[in-house]
Design brief:
The termini are far apart. The relative contact order is 0.15. The protein is globular, with a radius of gyration of 18 Å. By secondary structure, it is mainly alpha-helical. The strands form 2 sheets. It has a two-stranded antiparallel ribbon. The chain has a two-stranded antiparallel sheet with strand order 3-4. A hairpin with a 4-residue loop joins strand 1 and strand 2. Helix 7 packs across helix 8 and helix 8 crosses helix 9. It has 3 domains: 70 residues; 93 residues, no CATH class; 78 residues, Orthogonal Bundle (Arc Repressor Mutant, subunit A), CATH 1.10.10.
Length: 277
């Protein structure tokens, strides 16, 4: 069986934070920088979060009540309802509803076909373990297999001795499932595929990258666009499409590139706090 050969040297690892980032800024925006993540027991849960997006669009906004009391996800027991809410809250910020969560729900309500990739951007911001798994998936050549042991080796390298062999396997399989849900992997062999992001996904990636301290050309080459399989030129084209939808402002003259998304998304999405992140 053909498997992906992933170089774990630092120059091939994804860069999530730029020179101008701060702990306080990203955590207030909605990031989780440490601790275990939902992928120790669950995946991105794109079906569940998609259903909540649909229910919320009808006017409901109390996520805990929807999941735990109203049981809109159809879980069989009170404990399973509490568990799914806990994991969804960890991944998507349903308890505190930070600016990242607000922007996500607005975009996902407007762009149904892009929900999986929008969910990925939020999941990467809120689950440090999913970020680690990206180093095993994103550099892999299209068509090659990325089985769970490849992802597991990345966890073992990043966290020597932290996880048991059983947990490494479970964690790696959950992450592989999430990357399958987003279209990066396919089938039982988990063959590497190419993601297909839309303008709304590019806008959210640019917003997150901006909060993480990137700007101009460095924003376009950051991990937030690499996980979408966009080269800097393709990322710029996607942001121009986002500009046409009122989600970005792009100015490019030669090597000088200016990209702004906070004001545009705050106004278009009706999320004023994005102005100040």
């Amino acid at each position: 069986m053909e498997t992906a050969s992933v170089d774990l040297e630092r120059e091939n690892e994804l860069t999530w934070f730029g020179t101008g980032w701060s702990d306080l800024r990203v955590t207030e925006f909605g990031f989780r920088l440490e601790g275990g993540g939902a992928h120790q027991s669950k995946t991105l849960m794109t079906a569940e979060i998609g259903h909540l997006i649909e229910v919320r669009s009808s006017g409901q906004s109390d996520f805990r009540r929807m999941v735990v009391e109203d049981n809109v996800l159809g879980k069989a027991t009170a404990s399973s309802r509490a568990s799914v809410f806990r994991n969804l809250s960890s991944l998507y910020g349903l308890s505190t509803v930070p600016p990242l969560t607000r922007a996500f729900f607005k975009l996902a309500s407007l762009d149904r076909m892009s929900r999986a990739l929008l969910s990925l951007i939020v999941g990467l911001a809120r689950d440090p373990l999913l970020r680690v798994s990206a180093d095993a998936v994103i550099p892999a050549q299209v068509g090659l297999s990325v089985q769970w042991p490849t992802i597991g080796r990345r966890f073992s390298s990043a966290y020597p001795g932290r996880f048991s062999e059983k947990m490494v396997r479970s964690l790696s399989q959950n992450c592989a499932s999430s990357w399958t849900q987003t279209g990066h992997l396919e089938g039982k062999r988990k063959n590497r595929m190419t993601a297909n992001p839309t303008a709304s996904v590019a806008a959210l990636a640019a917003l997150v990258a901006t909060v993480c301290g990137f700007s101009g050309p460095s924003l376009l080459s950051s991990a937030w666009f690499r996980v979408l399989d966009l080269s800097p030129d393709a990322a710029l084209d996607a942001l121009r499409s986002a500009e046409a939808r009122g989600l970005a402002r792009v100015r490019a003259a030669g090597e000088v590139i200016e990209i702004a998304v906070r004001h545009q998304m705050a106004v278009t999405l009706g999320v004023p706090e994005l102005e100040y992140v």
